[in-house]
């Protein structure tokens, strides 16, 4: 039994006349877009009220995504956080600008929340393209099968 021919036959049966149930393939993309839009919106809300303060790099954890720990003080209380640098490396003891949410200073970052939101929403633009592409493929494939079955 030829493995290639059995795979090809199964592929032909599956995608020869695709069911609309095959759209469930895109469910993770739809959910992903929803989570990305939600994350973007949360970051934009935080960005509208964010404040900045000076903080200090206190630790470096290379095995864990090369992340850096930092501390900062808001209203006399010490807060800390972790950051993974995107462009520059930090040194322990280095002074950094910390962006924080004044409603919950434990939500902080070493970059602007608005920029973080834009990094989240970037890949979400490609998901609708994939969703539309697969839907269009199924629609066109089903239409060509139906037109081939209609007697002329």
Short structural summary:
This protein has 152 residues and is an alpha+beta fold. Helix content is 46%, strand content 26%. Strand 1 (51-61) and strand 2 (67-74) form a beta hairpin.
Determine the mean pLDDT.
Answer: 85
Largest sheet: 5 strands, antiparallel
Number of helices: 4
The gross shape turns out to be elongated
Order of helices and strands: HHEEEEEHH
Question: Which sequence of strands runs across the widest sheet?
Answer: 3-2-1-4-5
Give the proportion of residues in helices: 40-55%
Q: Given the helix and strand composition, which structural class is it? A: alpha+beta
What is the terminal-to-terminal distance?
A: 38 Å
Number-wise, the strands total 5
User: What are the segments in which pLDDT stays under 50 over at least 5 consecutive residues?
Assistant: none
Q: Rg, please?
A: 25 Å
Percent range for β-strand residues: 25-35%
Labels describing this entry:
single chain, 152 residues, alpha+beta, five-stranded antiparallel sheet, 46% helix, elongated
3D architecture notes:
With 152 residues, this protein is of the alpha+beta class. The protein is built from 4 helices and 5 strands. It has helices at residues 3-16, 27-49, 113-121, 126-149; strands at residues 51-61, 67-74, 77-83, 95-101, 104-109. Strands 3-2-1-4-5 form a 5-stranded antiparallel sheet. A hairpin with a 5-residue loop joins strand 1 and strand 2. The protein is elongated and about 80 Å long. The protein starts with a helix and ends with a helix. The model has no long low-confidence stretch (mean pLDDT 85).
